[in-house]
Amino acid sequence: MSSQAKGYLIAIAGITIWSTTGVLINYLLVNYNMPALLLAFWRNLLVCVALAPALFFVRRSLLKGNTSHLWFYLLYGLVLAVFNSIWTLSVRENGAAVATVLGYSSAGFTAIIALFIFHEKLGLPKVIAILLSLAGCVLVANAYSLEIWKLNPLGVSMGLLSGVFFAGYTLVGKEAMRRGLNVWTSLLVSFAFGAMFLMIFNLFQALPGAAGSFEALLPELPSDGWLVLIFLSFGPTLLGFGLYNWSMDYLPASIANLLATAEPAMTAIEAYIFLGERMTLVQIVGSAIILSAVLIVQLEKER
């Protein structure tokens, strides 16, 4: 097997695992009535619980601290915490399939923010992609109807904000690479700080669904609920991202990113199979438009 073929298999496996995130979050929210922000906190914490021992036994040097990057890691963790919070709330309000598609509106937001922060070129393809992305979001969220703003303004807002903060998280990750920080160290430290911020959000009731006390940080889950939560943290969150990053040892990052655009479609299929969620024809068209927008942005990076 060629190295490129191996890269494709690893990337597709990672993205397939990754795409179950929305379905598992929705399952915990609906079946166990788990508060959204409490779920986000435990998801981050359990990633650290899994990754720290793994690095200790496999490559202990990655656990050595570097205080010169402390403030950057704090920012990284804060952006991650806010993104995870809004994303989880979006799943609660919109369902797994729609929330995932709305999250991919980040392609347009990333292009705009990168123009000011990294001075990246904003050419015609990116402008077209931004417009397509926004148009797709309108269709997916049924935002062309005034009634949706009356009936579910929170869902629409959370969905679009998740795209904004996903863009922010992507750009902070890009800065981490520019600084030469190790991917796995960055993942561990950012999730650790993210868990810290999410604990604060819960304790001080900063957002809806906050826990309010240290005792309330322990979710009232039966054993099977804990298994789902652990699988969500170790599988889609840690293993999914890990395999995706590993695939870039064999593939250009742009190709891996192109493969990642299949995630919303995978999530929609999984939401249909496991949750019974059904997207309307208009929402399916909107999904296709958003995916085409992401594709245009990625193709411009090849030029």
Describe what is shown at a glance:
This protein is 77% helix and 0% strand.
Structure description:
With 303 residues, the chain is mostly helical. It has one domain. The chain is built from 14 helices and no strands. Helix 4 packs antiparallel against helix 9. The longest helix is centred in the middle third of the chain and has 26 residues. The chain is globular. The two termini are 29 Å apart. The mean pLDDT is 78.
Main beta sheet, described?
Answer: none
**How many structural domains are formed by the residues?**
1
**Contiguous runs where pLDDT drops below 50 for at least 5 residues:** none
- Radius of gyration from the alpha-carbon trace, in angstroms: 19 Å
What is the element string, with H for helices and E for strands? HHHHHHHHHHHHHH
Terminus-to-terminus distance: 29 Å
Strand content: under 5%
SSE diagram, text form:
Layout: H1 3-18, H2 21-31, H3 36-58, H4 70-94, H5 96-103, H6 106-117, H7 124-140, H8 146-151, H9 153-178, H10 183-203, H11 223-247, H12 253-260, H13 263-275, H14 281-301
